[in-house]
Amino acid sequence: MEGIGVEDTRQRFTVDIRILAEKKKSSYCTARVKGFPVTETCEDFRKEVQNILPGTHDETNIPSSSITEKIDDYIHSLKERHGESGYQPYQYKLWAEMLALGSHKSQEEPPMLPIFRNKIAKKTQPAASSSTSTMGTSVPGNSRSEILRQLRELNELKQMDVLTDEEFADKKKVLLNDLN
């Protein structure tokens, strides 16, 4: 009776595996695997993933240039439609990536994300009033808290690699100047 009726008694689980794109860390897909075995080590887990989802360990998952071209086309289209509305380059980029990946459908309405609720504040003081800003005036509470909120959102965008270090520094400088 050797080998007959022997059953795998290890527990099995349903696992959602998030696979990051190698070049765009903000792009990923999710694979749901049913009946995934319990493993002893991380290396065993990695081997099981590679056995179940071939292609996760080789170069074939690098985003193709066609996706990059698609994103660029979306950015161009969005800028044509919304050029006068004050969206920032990183907002167009994020919106275009969401359209290309299918996580957002509309080119007319922006995604329902905090960074699209309010556009980044621009310096609204005219140049002639710069002498009055040295008199010790302060930003009203609501404006100050709004600018601080935008700084937090800006930091989140930088951490998600939506903004480059240079873009982040430029936007941060504008917002900090608004506080003075």
TrEMBL record:
From the UniProt entry, list the residue stretches annotated as the region Disordered.
Answer: 123-143
Q: Where is the SHOCT domain?
A: 150-176
Per the record, where are the segments of Low complexity compositional bias? 129-138
Q: What is this protein called?
A: SHOCT domain-containing protein
Q: Which organism is it from?
A: Desmophyllum pertusum
